[in-house]
Each structure stands twice: as C-alpha cells, then as structure tokens.
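Translate structure to sequence.
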C-alpha cells in the first residue's frame, strides 16, 4: 500500500499557492546546495544527497533513480479550492525501498522548512515550520 506525507501551506507560510514548476526548482536548489557541500568536503556528495532524476508529467513530479537502494517517489501539488491554500503530497509506492523512505522524509522536511508549512510525516506525526 502506498504511503503519503503532506505539506500544507498555511497563513504563516511564505506562499499560499505553489506550482509543480516551483517545487521542481526547489529540488534543483537542493541539488545545488548539496553539491556545494560536497565541494567543501572534497567529496562527490551530490549523487548521494540527490540520487534522483526529476521528470514532470501530468501535473506531478516523478523522482526516479537507478542507484542501488532507491526506486521512485512522486510529488504532487494540489489546491483545496480557490480560497484554500495549496498543499504538497509526497507519495511512496508499496514497492519503495528504504532509501526512498529516508530521502522522502529528508525532502519533505526540506520543502516544509523552505516554504514554512505544516508537515504531516508518513507516520502521521506533524511538524510545524511556521510561527504559530
């Protein structure tokens, strides 16, 4: 069975609405900053930090990897209505590997912190990255 994590954009968030293109830009930003960390450490860290290839299709992102221990995850953006803010959904399929689950947790925390949103993790626990 698939598992999901959600990032809800709230009144204290940086943005109320977000697009798939903007989420893809955040992943490219993540890849860029981790490659700079690797340069400072003299280590090829970018392939370990972001072992996925990002592709956009049908209104969601598919993150797929050929690396050992990784498979695939999906990131979608949805809006509950015109007056309701957007939310992001990170989905892991039932055949996802442990590396996918770890990276999905890492990415969801990164995205929630960057957007100052409310994160509901895969285990149902909530983390708040905005001022309450």
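Result:
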């Amino acid at each position: 069975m698939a598992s999901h994590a959600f990032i809800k954009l709230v009144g204290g968030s940086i943005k109320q609405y977000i697009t798939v293109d903007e989420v893809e830009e955040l992943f490219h930003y993540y890849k860029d900053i981790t490659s700079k960390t690797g340069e400072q450490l003299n280590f090829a860290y970018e392939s370990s930090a972001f072992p996925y290839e990002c592709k956009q299709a049908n209104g969601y992102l598919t993150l797929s990897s050929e690396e050992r221990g990784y498979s695939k995850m999906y990131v979608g953006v949805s809006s509950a209505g015109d007056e309701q803010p957007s939310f992001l959904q990170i989905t892991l399929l039932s055949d996802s590997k442990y590396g996918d689950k770890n990276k999905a947790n890492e990415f969801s925390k990164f995205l929630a912190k960057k957007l100052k949103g409310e994160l509901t993790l895969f285990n149902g626990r909530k983390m708040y990255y905005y001022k309450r």
